UniProtKB/TrEMBL annotation:
Entry protein name: Legumain-like
PANTHER family per the UniProt record, alphabetical: HEMOGLOBINASE FAMILY MEMBER (PTHR12000), LEGUMAIN (PTHR12000:SF42)
Family classification: Belongs to the peptidase C13 family.
Classification lineage: Eukaryota, Metazoa, Spiralia, Lophotrochozoa, Mollusca
InterPro entries: Legum_prodom, Legumain_prodom_sf, Peptidase_C13
CDD domains to which the protein is assigned, alphabetical: legumain_C (cd21115)
Source organism per UniProt: Aplysia californica (California sea hare)
Domain Legumain prodomain as annotated: residue spans: 315-410
Protein origin, superkingdom: Eukaryota
Protein encoded by which gene: LOC101864009
Length: 423
């Protein structure tokens, strides 16, 4: 089965690159990681072209990328972030650019992709856990690798990367596209590419930076702009909130040489979207980020009147398979919770399935995700972000049950599901 082209992370990161360059930040001060498999994908009707609004400018030319394909993984990102050149070389076999910052430097980091509670997901469901990210940030603080740092994180459940874990006294301010318990949302259906091009959070802050006077507008004012644009999710702020009174030129521009860009603003982009469609309860105008594959396939099937009968059948088969994976992931999780609770300790299975707890036992959670992925390749969480929607239950189990019970339940239940043996 084919995989719908997922435009938004790579288009958003290229827009961010151009925004920083337009604001006179030199390329040697920018590190850009992108899987980079969309612009020249055979499924892209416009080779070498990336946009994050319909009919928007091509963002791919001049978008310099430092790490591609298999180099885009959490281990490399953390080495880049902490300035570990030797660590990067050991991981990828070559010299790579890192954030080689000093106590006098401000650092700006933007991350865009998929996520699950407590995790930011790199391509292929390579997991960056919130504890590992925050430990790296604390290391940077101890080593005096910045004066102040700002992070913008866009993924589903992105608030869980910092809630209750990012210190307020290490000169770091972060915003996220959603709270810890909800997905982010995408926008900007492109009728020519038959794909979603942008995101509410990413488009909002970048278009705001492109248009604003970066020397007078504050991070707090930009956060207000983003909050209004993200009308389905709830952006949040973490860390040292006193920093949001600073103008964002201190993080997104150099003091001199700023020149505004000419991109569409979010409101103009949104107005291009046509009438509302739904499929299996999914809003096909503005689906959740983790539902983008189902939404893209469903919308292509609904809107493309010139499809051959063979192509229609392929789309239908793809939708049936994805809905089967989604259904099996849900039922498997319910059975797993039941198997992991021989001693309920006052909790019910429903408490585990519906609870919204923070990660308290990170080691158990990491081990559970790793074992589940290995034991059930049919529920391909690397390929299907929507199959990860039930992982909050893993957090809740690990918080209340012994790790051995959780791991035993995974072994027991995955053995019974035929889809777990499917490759």
């Amino acid at each position: 089965m084919s995989n719908p082209v997922c435009v938004f992370p790579q288009a958003v990161s290229c827009h961010a690159y151009h925004t920083m360059r337009n604001n006179s930040i030199p390329p040697e001060n920018i590190v850009h990681m992108s899987y980079d498999d969309v612009a020249h994908s055979p499924d892209n009707p416009f080779p070498g072209n990336l946009v994050n609004t319909p009919e928007g400018p091509n963002l791919y030319p001049g978008c310099e990328i430092d790490y591609r394909k298999e180099e885009v993984k959490p281990e490399v990102f953390l080495k880049v972030l902490t300035g570990d050149k030797e660590g990067v070389k050991k991981l990828i076999g070559r010299d790579g650019k890192v954030i080689d910052s000093s106590p006098d430097d401000n650092v700006f980091v933007t991350m865009v992709g998929h996520g699950v509670p407590g995790v930011f997901s790199f391509p292929g469901f390579r997991t960056l856990h919130n504890t590992d990210l925050n430990n790296a940030l604390k290391q940077m603080y101890r080593e005096k690798r910045y004066r102040e740092m700002v992070l913008y994180v866009e993924s589903s459940y992105s608030g869980s990367m910092f809630e209750g874990i990012l210190p307020k006294n290490i000169n770091i301010y972060s915003t996220t596209c959603s709270n810890p318990h909800e997905p982010g949302y995408i926008c900007c259906w492109d009728n020519y590419r038959n794909a979603y091009a942008g995101t509410f959070y990413g488009n909002a802050w970048m278009y705001n930076t492109d248009k604003a006077d970066v020397h007078t507008e504050t991070l707090s004012q930009q956060y207000d702009v983003v909050t209004k644009a993200c009308h389905r999710s709830h952006p949040m702020q973490f860390g040292d909130l006193s920093m949001n009174k600073k103008v964002f030129a201190q993080f997104q521009a150099k003091a001199e040489g700023y020149k505004p860009s000419v991109y569409l603003n979010t409101q103009e982009a949104d107005s291009i979207v046509g009438s509302k469609f739904t499929f299996a309860g999914i809003d096909l105008n503005n689906p959740a980020i983790d539902m983008v594959q189902i939404a893209t396939t469903a919308r292509r099937l609904i809107e493309s009147r010139d499809l051959s009968s063979q192509k229609r059948e392929e789309f239908k088969a793809e939708l049936r398979h994805m809905m089967l994976v989604k259904e099996k992931a849900e039922s498997l999780t319910k059975d797993l919770v039941k198997a992991a609770m021989p001693n309920s300790r006052g909790l019910t299975e429903n408490d585990i399935l519906t609870g919204k707890e923070r990660v308290e036992n990170s080691e158990c959670y990491k081990a559970a995700l790793s074992l589940f992925s290995a034991r059930c390749p049919g529920i391909d969480m690397g390929r299907y972000p929507f199959a990860r929607r039930n992982l909050q239950a893993f957090i809740n189990l690990c918080n209340h049950q012994p790790q051995i019970d959780v791991m035993s339940a995974i072994l027991e239940v995955t053995e019974k599901y035929g889809i777990c043996q499917a490759l």
